[in-house]
């Protein structure tokens, strides 16, 4: 008798990603004892299911499986919970297993600050341990929430594309569960008797994602019927394909709209389709020092008006103390 369908589903998702990791590293000299793949585990149902599947599948492919858990220090006793996760990961046979304590700042709001601190810690651990990849437990439900948040921000098609299956430096981060719903992951934990921790922040209405999860998505399903989550996940993939194509077009076009000194020429920018032009402007602002996470559609629209609606406007102040201004038919974006 085979495993429970929920367990089979999560194992299949992980097996596919592990095969991709081996293929991506086929031309790289790997350690004699096999490449190391880490799972980022909070102790919640999604990441516990992911850890169990990694522990089961990795040895069959000659892959070493380890785990890291991040202690954000935002709740009383968070260090004790992190220590419990380490014990659970070790019991699954994962090695090495580490708890990483971080200090969460305030920039961008609590959710963004915690995310930035978490990824910085994961990047450091992956590099220090020589990990070929880090698996993240984001599910199809998380993807649907991300798409809706992007829609609410009005940030464009890239925001609607949600989370990528592969991201980070050299494809470090992998998300095997983007095609798996949250309930399947929780069921897999239940049938395997895996203890899980439900983060109270996930039910706290003070957090935007929590309100969307417990109020927004249920209201949409009530109004539109079941299948909203699946539809939003499909929207993410279609949007990502379109955004990737436009990004490629913009990268090629950028070389044709700069003068001999490297400045952007307004007339040549004006001739480009808006979607392509705005991608070039966004990239130029980021290259000048504007933080990508703080650069919103309204900022790019203001820069774009220097090209399409020039009326002698003054310089535009952007995040990161970056300034954009038009000078003699050229667009200058630099640190102010």
TrEMBL record:
The gene is tilS. ATP binds at residues 42-47. Its EC number is 6.3.4.19. It comes from the Bacteria. It is an enzyme of class 6 (ligase). It catalyses: cytidine(34) in tRNA(Ile2) + L-lysine + ATP = lysidine(34) in tRNA(Ile2) + AMP + diphosphate + H(+). Residues 37-215 form the tRNA(Ile)-lysidine/2-thiocytidine synthase N-terminal domain. Belongs to the tRNA(Ile)-lysidine synthase family. This is tRNA(Ile)-lysidine synthase. InterPro entries: Rossmann-like_a/b/a_fold, TilS/TtcA_N, tRNA_Ile_lys_synt, tRNA_Ile_lys_synt_N, tRNA_Ile_lys_synt_subst-bd. Keywords: ATP-binding, Cytoplasm, Ligase, Nucleotide-binding, tRNA processing. It is found in: Cytoplasm. GO terms for biological process: tRNA modification. Its main location: cytoplasm. GO terms for cellular component: cytoplasm. GO terms for molecular function: ATP binding; tRNA(Ile)-lysidine synthase activity. Residues 264-331 form the tRNA(Ile)-lysidine synthase substrate-binding domain. The N-terminal region contains the highly conserved SGGXDS motif, predicted to be a P-loop motif involved in ATP binding.
């Amino acid at each position: 008798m085979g495993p429970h369908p929920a367990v089979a589903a999560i194992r299949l998702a992980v097996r596919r990603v592990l095969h991709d990791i081996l293929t991506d590293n086929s031309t790289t000299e790997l350690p004699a004892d096999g490449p190391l793949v880490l799972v980022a585990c909070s102790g919640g149902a999604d990441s516990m299911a992911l850890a169990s599947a990694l522990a089961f599948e990795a040895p069959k492919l000659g892959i070493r499986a380890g785990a890291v858990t991040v202690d954000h220090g935002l709740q009383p006793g968070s260090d004790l919970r992190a220590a419990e996760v380490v014990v659970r990961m070790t019991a699954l046979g994962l090695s090495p297993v580490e708890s990483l304590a971080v200090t969460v700042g305030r920039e961008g709001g609590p959710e963004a600050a915690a995310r930035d601190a978490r990824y910085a810690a994961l990047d450091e651990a992956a590099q220090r341990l020589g990990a070929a990849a880090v698996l993240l437990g984001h599910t199809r439900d998380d993807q649907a929430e991300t798409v809706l948040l992007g829609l609410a921000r009005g940030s464009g098609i890239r925001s609607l594309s949600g989370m990528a299956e592969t991201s980070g430096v050299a494809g470090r981060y992998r998300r095997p569960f983007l095609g798996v719903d949250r309930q399947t992951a929780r069921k897999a934990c239940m049938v395997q008797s895996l203890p899980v921790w439900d983060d109270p922040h996930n039910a706290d209405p003070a957090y935007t994602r929590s309100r969307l999860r417990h109020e927004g998505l249920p209201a949409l399903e009530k109004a539109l019927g079941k299948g909203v989550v699946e539809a939003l996940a499909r929207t993410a993939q279609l949007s990502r394909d379109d955004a990737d194509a436009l990004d490629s077009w913009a990268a090629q076009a950028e070389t044709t709209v700069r003068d001999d000194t490297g400045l952007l020429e307004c007339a040549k920018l004006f001739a480009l389709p808006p979607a392509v032009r705005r991608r070039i402007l966004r990239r130029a602002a980021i290259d000048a020092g504007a933080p990508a996470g703080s650069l919103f559609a309204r900022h790019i629209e203001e820069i774009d008006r220097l090209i399409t609606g020039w009326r002698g406007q003054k310089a535009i102040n952007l995040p990161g103390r970056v300034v954009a201004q038009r000078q003699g038919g050229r667009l200058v974006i630099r640190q102010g």
